[in-house]
Structures are given as structure tokens and as C-alpha cells.
Design brief:
Elements: E1 8-12, H1 16-31, E2 37-41, E3 61-62, H2 64-72, E4 82-86, E5 88-93, E6 96-101, E7 109-112, H3 129-139, E8 143-145, E9 151-154, E10 158-162, E11 165-168, E12 171-174, E13 195-197, E14 199-204, E15 213-218, E16 224-232, E17 235-242, H4 249-256, H5 258-262, E18 278-280, E19 288-289, E20 292-294, H6 307-325, H7 329-335, H8 337-362, H9 364-378, H10 387-396, H11 401-408, H12 411-431
Parallel strand pairs: 1-2, 1-12, 2-8, 5-15, 12-20
Antiparallel strand pairs: 3-7, 4-7, 5-6, 9-10, 10-11, 13-18, 14-17, 15-16, 16-17, 19-20
Bound molecules: flavin-adenine dinucleotide.
Amino acid sequence: MQLRENSRVCIIGGGPAGCFAAMHLLDLAREASVRIDVRIFDPRFAREDRGIIGCKGCAGIVSANALQAIESLGIHIPPSVIQETIEEYRVHILGQVIRLTQPRPGRTILSVYRGSGPRAHHGEPIASFDAFLLAEARARGAVYVPERVRAVEWNGAPAVRTDSGVHTADFLVLAAGVNSNPVMDPFFEYTPPAAEIMAQDEIRKPEGWPPHTVAAFFGDPKGLVFGVLVPKKEYLNVSLLGHGMGPDPIREFFQAQKEPVSQYLPSPPESCCGCGPRVPLHAAPRLFGDRWVAVGDAAVARLYKDGIYSAFITSQGAMAAAFRNGISASSFEAGYAPLARRIAGDNQYGELLFGVTNAIIKSARLTAAFLYSLHVDEQRPPEKKILARLIWGMLTGDESYRDLFRMSFQPSELAGLGREALRRQWRMARRG
Ligand SMILES: Cc1cc2nc3c(=O)[nH]c(=O)nc-3n(C[C@H](O)[C@H](O)[C@H](O)COP(=O)(O)OP(=O)(O)OC[C@H]3O[C@@H](n4cnc5c(N)ncnc54)[C@H](O)[C@@H]3O)c2cc1C
């Protein structure tokens, strides 16, 4: 089973995974001088809707890895789409603030809007990152079909049903994320990844907001893994990630984090949008079959962070396997499954890291020891920093969870940090 001249590829979903899949496939086809018919189905871009209709609930941080990957396609995010370049994270843990800057100089992080801006936004719609990617996919030859896919059936090949008709595909790419009703017929044996609801809002950015800075919060309320306030020109995105958060997580967050938040926001913030998007927690049990493959969130994504980059690499891996080895299940097993397993395996390290961080925060003694080590770590030369790099990597997706885990649990590194912490404590005790 191979893609040939005039093969039709139907992509369900025009988010990052769907657009990257289209771009990878069309680039591979052009290199091989083969013409293929690529169609992206998604109702979301038919109008420039503000608020949740035109959006995909997301903090909208484009990591350094994602940025480099996007540039490798020969595209550059235009200034109108960039809301802010991020240079610093201020991490609030139980009354302490730790200021972290990019530990690896030269790596840029951006914030963008995935839709056309918050519901309460007036004036011109804000330039959308997803709409920009879709325009790039169309410029390479993809056809945009502004319709919702109602079902995918099997008629000897995948058949995509929308309200206006049926499109039979030689090859189907499922890039529908985890926030809509499943469409795949039971024949495909596809079930979406287990996912959990998170919380988001947009609020007005106060005048004195520190430039190029994300504020991150660990600790309360119950269930919070971490929360961030991400600057986007005149707004701040509020993004809460957690397990089993309460019924009104945004309100509970602002109550629980009143003190650190008041350093930035003089009065209680007014909601300008608000949604409860889902994040996948695990990989989908089945990611491919003959003539179909799932990519992005619909397949597997990095836990909590950097889903845009996961969308890029899963699309790249799956489309390379499809184009070079063929569109059978065995081709994806050989060419795509190892990548998906690697991401799922990496997430297990992520779960461990977030689990340990939250266990530390629950114990006052461990938190005090951790914060002390962090202050010691802050004063070390950039190449020797462990904890700063660990927290930066966990919050930004800049490094794999596996690398962060190995780095932070290397006995020699930890012993070095511990020795330094003890030396400083001893010196301080002698001084007074
Ligand atoms: C609270 C939160 C914060 C996050 N913050 C970040 C962050 O800062 N940085 C980051 O990189 N990632 C972040 N993520 C993860 C990121 O949003 C996702 O990993 C990423 O959007 C996945 O891209 P995707 O294309 O696979 O899916 P989506 O972006 O979900 O795109 C799926 C597309 O499919 C379309 N669709 C669905 N069903 C159908 C259908 N039946 N017919 C046609 N079209 C359909 C939808 O309209 C949508 O456009 C965050 C996620 C959450 C929940």
C-alpha cells in the first residue's frame, strides 16, 4: 500500500498536528515529484470567532524546540502572530519566588493565540497561530474543507462523512485532538487517549507586568500541578494544569494564590474568556491501521507541556513512514510506533518529576530544603545549574523529561549541590 500520483489524503483537524502533517506530506511529495490531493477538514477556521469557538484552549507557549522545528519547514512566525517573547519565569512556591532565565542562551520561546483572541476582546481579531499554520499548509497545496467530520467509515478504504457528502480517502490522518466527539467507526478500533479537563481564562494584563515574564505557581488549590500567567500583549492567559481540580478552579486558584498574585494584580481579575480544555494523559491504545494513522493529541503528546512540538514530531514521523514505507499498519509499526512509544515513555518520567515536586511542596521541611538548594543552585555557573534547569525544562518543555530526570537524580550532581548547600549554611552559621 503506497501513496501514488493523485492519491487522496483526508486530514481530520486543522490544528498544529493536521497542518504539520499536510506540510510534511506535501514537501515529501514535491521532493519525489508526485502530486497528491491533501484535504484538511476543520470547521474552526470558517470565521474569525473570538472566544472558545475559534480557539483551542492552550496557554499558547511555543517552545524553543517547536520554534526550531517550525523553522525547519522554511516558515517563520510573523510578528503579528507573536504576542510576546518569553525570557523569564518567576516561580512562586509557598511564599518564595525564584527567578529563572533561559539556561541555554539563544533559545527563544514565544507566546501566541491559538484562536482570534479572548471572547471579551473588541476591535480587530487577534492574529491566530493556528490560522497562520493553516495558511502555510494551503500555500503548499492543501485544500481546506471548512466542515466538521461526522463519521469515518470503512468502504474498502476510509470514507469521511460530512454534512455535505462523503470523501473517500486513500489515506486518512486523524488529527482531531481530544476535545471533540470521536468520529472513527468501531471498525478502526481507535479510542482516544485518556484525558483530563484543565482550566483556562484570559484577564487584562496590568500596567506594571514585568516584561517578557511568565509567572508560575505551585501549591494550592487542591489538585493543582502548576498554574501559569502568560503575557500576550494586553492580556494574560491563565492556565491551570492539575489532577482532580475543584468545580471552579480559576476562582479557587486566585483565592489560594492571593498573596503572590497580588504582587502583579492589584485588584481581583475580571474574566475575559474561560474554558475547560482537555489534555491527553497517555497514548491512544491504537495509533494506526491499514490506510490510517493518528497524530498529535489524538495519538500521544508530551505530558502537560509542549503539545505543539509533539504535534510536529508525531506528524513528521507518521508522514515520513507513510510516504517512504507505505500506508499499511506494518509500515507504521516499523516507522512510527517507536517514536510514539518514546514520547509515552518520556511522559512516565514526567509523571514522576511532577509527582516528586508536589510531594516536596506538601512537606514544609522538604520545601525549605528544596528552596535552599535552589538558591544555592541559582548562584552556580550556568553549566552547573541543576534545579534551575530542571524547573525551566518542566515548565517550558525545553528538554525531555527523561533527560531532566537523569540530570536531577545523578548522585554525583546532587551530592555536589548538597555539599555546596551545607558549606554555605556552615559559613552563614559562623558569620552569625
Ligand atoms: C490548559 C492547556 C494548556 C496548554 N498549553 C500548552 C502550551 O503552552 N504549549 C504547547 O505547546 N502546548 C500546550 N498545550 C497542549 C496543546 O494545546 C496541544 O497539545 C495541541 O493543541 C495539540 O495539537 P493537535 O493538532 O493534535 O490538536 P488540537 O490543537 O486540539 O487540534 C484539533 C483540531 O481538530 C479539529 N477537529 C476536532 N474534531 C473534528 C471533526 N470531527 N471534524 C473536523 N475537525 C475536527 C478541531 O477543531 C481542532 O482544530 C496545552 C493544553 C492545555 C489543555
